[in-house]
Structure formats: C-alpha cells, structure tokens
Design goal:
By secondary structure, this protein is mainly α. Helix content is 66%, strand content 0%. The protein is built from 3 helices and no strands. Helix 2 crosses helix 3. It is elongated and about 65 Å long.
C-alpha cells in the first residue's frame, strides 16, 4: 500500500513553504502523471512513494514558474499601457511643424 504524500515532504525538497492550494493541485497532477507513466511503462519504481513525492515537487516548481511568468507578462503589459496613456497627444519627432515668416 502506498503512503500518502505530505506537504512537509515536498517542502523539505523545495526548501521553502508552499500553500495548501499549491500542494493539493500539484499532488493531484502528480498522481495523474504517475498513473500515466505506469500505464506507458509498468515499472514498479514508478509506483513508489518517493517517486510521487518527486513528481509533486516537480509540479510545484512548474506552477511557481508559470505564475512568475504570467505575473511578469501582466506587469509588462500594464507598463506598456501606462506608457501609451502618458504619451498620447505628445508630438513625436515624426511631426514636422513649419513656421512661415511674415
């Protein structure tokens, strides 16, 4: 019978704290991945406890990277919008103004 993966085990591998939501989402995905891998290649090692812990750790890292990337993209997008808003109506070097002498 397989032991239940604990949040503490995953945090020890990551060397940081994670939220319950991150842990549960990662564990659910890791269990699905473990079953898929075993279905493709039925090796006993795939069904061992430590393997599921490592898959869970891997997915927590993946979630963190995805969140970081999305936050960065959102921040850059907001910066671009802010830049465009601040500079609307400001003449650029492409506009040529001619002044005629009287």
């Amino acid at each position: 019978m397989q032991q239940i993966v604990s949040k503490k085990e995953v945090e020890e591998l990551l060397k940081c704290k994670i939220t319950d939501k991150q842990f549960h989402e990662a564990l659910e995905y890791a269990q699905k991945k473990q079953a898929y891998i075993y279905e493709q290649e039925p090796r006993e090692v795939v069904m061992q406890h430590w393997y599921l812990v490592k898959l869970t750790e891997e997915y927590v890292r993946s979630l963190a990277l995805s969140k970081f990337t999305m936050d960065l993209c959102r921040k850059l997008s907001n910066m671009e919008k802010e830049h465009l808003t601040k500079h609307e109506g400001t003449p650029t070097s492409n506009h040529i103004v001619t002044v005629s002498a009287l």
